[in-house]
Amino acid sequence: MVLDQVGIALGPLLASAGVVGLAIGFGAQSLVADYLSGLLIMIEDQYGVGDSVDLGEAIGEVEHIGLRLTHVRDLNGGPLAHPQRRDPARPERQPGLGTCRAGRPRGLRSQS
What we know:
Blueprint: H1 2-6, H2 10-27, H3 29-44, E1 52-54, E2 59-65, E3 69-74, E4 79-83
Antiparallel strand pairs: 1-2, 2-3, 3-4
Protein backbone atom coordinates (compact mmCIF):
# COMPACT_ATOMS: atom_id res chain seq x y z
CA MET A 1 0.00 0.00 0.00
CA VAL A 2 0.95 3.62 -0.33
CA LEU A 3 1.22 4.20 3.43
CA ASP A 4 3.65 1.28 3.81
CA GLN A 5 5.87 2.75 1.12
CA VAL A 6 5.92 6.11 2.89
CA GLY A 7 6.84 4.40 6.16
CA ILE A 8 3.58 4.71 8.07
CA ALA A 9 2.43 1.52 9.79
CA LEU A 10 -1.20 0.81 9.05
CA GLY A 11 -1.95 -1.34 12.15
CA PRO A 12 -1.42 1.33 14.83
CA LEU A 13 -3.25 3.87 12.68
CA LEU A 14 -6.34 1.63 12.42
CA ALA A 15 -6.21 0.84 16.15
CA SER A 16 -6.06 4.55 17.00
CA ALA A 17 -8.99 5.26 14.69
CA GLY A 18 -10.98 2.52 16.45
CA VAL A 19 -10.25 3.97 19.90
CA VAL A 20 -11.22 7.48 18.73
CA GLY A 21 -14.44 6.13 17.21
CA LEU A 22 -15.29 4.33 20.44
CA ALA A 23 -14.69 7.50 22.48
CA ILE A 24 -16.90 9.54 20.15
CA GLY A 25 -19.62 6.86 20.39
CA PHE A 26 -19.63 6.94 24.20
CA GLY A 27 -19.58 10.74 24.19
CA ALA A 28 -22.53 10.98 21.79
CA GLN A 29 -24.62 8.44 23.71
CA SER A 30 -26.42 11.03 25.85
CA LEU A 31 -26.93 13.28 22.83
CA VAL A 32 -28.61 10.47 20.90
CA ALA A 33 -30.72 9.58 23.96
CA ASP A 34 -31.88 13.22 24.19
CA TYR A 35 -32.88 13.30 20.51
CA LEU A 36 -34.76 9.98 20.67
CA SER A 37 -36.60 10.99 23.84
CA GLY A 38 -37.48 14.37 22.30
CA LEU A 39 -38.80 12.68 19.19
CA LEU A 40 -41.00 10.38 21.28
CA ILE A 41 -42.27 13.30 23.38
CA MET A 42 -43.29 15.11 20.19
CA ILE A 43 -44.86 12.05 18.54
CA GLU A 44 -46.80 11.02 21.65
CA ASP A 45 -47.73 14.64 22.44
CA GLN A 46 -46.89 14.13 26.12
CA TYR A 47 -46.95 17.86 26.85
CA GLY A 48 -47.17 21.01 24.81
CA VAL A 49 -46.32 24.70 24.86
CA GLY A 50 -48.23 26.42 27.65
CA ASP A 51 -48.62 23.30 29.79
CA SER A 52 -47.56 23.32 33.44
CA VAL A 53 -44.98 20.59 34.00
CA ASP A 54 -42.83 19.09 36.75
CA LEU A 55 -39.70 17.70 35.08
CA GLY A 56 -37.72 17.16 38.27
CA GLU A 57 -35.53 20.22 38.72
CA ALA A 58 -37.58 22.17 36.17
CA ILE A 59 -41.07 23.10 37.38
CA GLY A 60 -43.10 25.67 35.48
CA GLU A 61 -44.70 26.44 32.14
CA VAL A 62 -43.37 25.01 28.85
CA GLU A 63 -42.22 27.73 26.45
CA HIS A 64 -40.61 25.64 23.69
CA ILE A 65 -40.15 21.94 22.93
CA GLY A 66 -37.22 20.88 20.80
CA LEU A 67 -35.75 17.52 19.93
CA ARG A 68 -33.01 17.86 22.55
CA LEU A 69 -34.27 20.37 25.14
CA THR A 70 -37.53 21.55 26.67
CA HIS A 71 -37.46 25.24 27.64
CA VAL A 72 -39.47 25.96 30.79
CA ARG A 73 -40.27 29.25 32.52
CA ASP A 74 -40.09 28.45 36.24
CA LEU A 75 -42.45 29.68 38.94
CA ASN A 76 -40.20 32.69 39.67
CA GLY A 77 -40.05 33.71 35.99
CA GLY A 78 -36.56 32.36 35.28
CA PRO A 79 -35.81 30.39 32.11
CA LEU A 80 -34.72 26.75 32.39
CA ALA A 81 -33.56 24.30 29.73
CA HIS A 82 -34.20 20.64 30.56
CA PRO A 83 -32.77 17.71 28.52
CA GLN A 84 -35.37 15.35 27.09
CA ARG A 85 -34.00 12.09 28.47
CA ARG A 86 -35.48 10.64 31.59
CA ASP A 87 -33.52 10.83 34.82
CA PRO A 88 -32.60 7.27 35.88
CA ALA A 89 -32.57 8.38 39.54
CA ARG A 90 -36.30 9.22 39.28
CA PRO A 91 -38.00 6.23 37.65
CA GLU A 92 -41.52 6.79 36.45
CA ARG A 93 -44.07 5.00 38.58
CA GLN A 94 -47.41 3.71 37.45
CA PRO A 95 -49.83 3.59 40.39
CA GLY A 96 -51.85 0.44 40.67
CA LEU A 97 -49.39 -1.79 38.86
CA GLY A 98 -47.24 -4.25 40.74
CA THR A 99 -46.60 -7.86 41.51
CA CYS A 100 -48.09 -9.97 44.24
CA ARG A 101 -46.94 -13.38 45.32
CA ALA A 102 -49.57 -15.50 46.99
CA GLY A 103 -49.09 -18.82 48.65
CA ARG A 104 -48.06 -20.55 51.81
CA PRO A 105 -44.61 -19.76 53.22
CA ARG A 106 -42.16 -22.62 52.87
CA GLY A 107 -41.57 -24.79 55.87
CA LEU A 108 -45.09 -24.48 57.30
CA ARG A 109 -47.45 -27.41 57.29
CA SER A 110 -51.20 -27.12 57.14
CA GLN A 111 -53.13 -27.99 60.28
CA SER A 112 -55.45 -30.84 59.34
